[in-house]
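#struct-pred
JK: can someone run the complex with glutathione? inputs below
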Amino acid sequence: MAPAYKLSYFNFRGLAETARFLLNYGGIEFEDVRVTQEEWPQLKEKMPFGTLPVLEHDGKQAGQSIAIARYLAKQVGLAGKDDWENLEIDAIVDTINDLRLKLLAIHFEKDEEKKKTLLETAAKETIPYYITRLETIVQQNNGHLALGRLTWADFYFTTVCGAFDFFFGGDCLANSPSLKSLVQKVNELPAIKKWIEIRPKTEF
Ligand code: GSH
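RT: done, structure tokens with the ligand placed:
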């Protein structure tokens, strides 16, 4: 029987890896579809808003990586226990996404002079601003980003922080031992470790 979930994305970790981690963590079988650039133009019109990732289940489709991760986190027991707990997780995830979007904008900047200035500002201001605060949160929260326990916020950070380095061109966590050890802890969870061993090897 075909797996109940189908997750479509491109052949990189990018915005689908949080969902892939959650599905593996929960032992949920899924079809890991990696769309090629040749296939994409035809498929794009069939997607809810013309982007990936898209999760399909029971003949239904949903886009938006963070919404998909939030849904899967509930399925696998990594969401909050009440609305306030979920708010705390969402606030951290949205903050990490703010940083991701700022670094992504720098990565796609075409004007080389402007890009150089933006990279300098990121190194001196943006990255320290966010990463120092996230580091303190982990230090004060039993080694986690929310609720003092493992939640999907930890999975989200672990799966997107590699892209920070890719966009920025440096080690964003160089001075953040607690965040580094959180990433290591998540990557060493048995189901995640197994997934990392077998997943397609991609640059980001
Ligand atoms: N906010 C959306 C999410 O988090 O899922 C962004 C989705 C998005 O921009 N996906 C990109 C995409 O589908 C890949 S990372 N690009 C192809 C296109 O726009 O044609």
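RT: quick notes.
Residues 14-15, 44, 50-53, 63-66 surround glutathione (CB under 6 Å).
The chain has two domains: 5-77+190-198, 83-187.
JK: thanks, will look after standup
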